[in-house]
Design a protein that fits this description.
By secondary structure, the chain is mainly alpha-helical. It has one domain (4-57). The chain is built from 3 helices and 2 strands. The protein has helices at residues 17-29, 34-48, 51-57; strands spanning 4-6, 12-14. Strands 1-2 form a two-stranded antiparallel sheet. The chain starts with a strand and ends with a helix. 0% of the residues are buried.
């Protein structure tokens, strides 16, 4: 099994086999393909970061 996830929008993420197993089970729970679930999860995380933190990171 290849535990490296390559996103089609230029984002390169690597997971351990244990992390990938959790991602797969969470994706099944949400009835989404793993690729779509990871994209959705990252977008939710980015949107949850307060604006002042994102401004400071720029």
């Amino acid at each position: 099994m290849n535990n490296e996830y390559v996103h089609d929008e230029g984002m390169r993420l690597t997971f351990t086999p244990a992390e990938f197993d959790v991602l797969c089970s969470q994706a099944r729970k949400h009835k989404m393909p793993v690729r779509k679930f990871v994209s959705w999860m990252v977008k939710c995380f980015i949107n949850s970061v307060p604006t002042e933190d994102t401004d400071r990171a720029k």
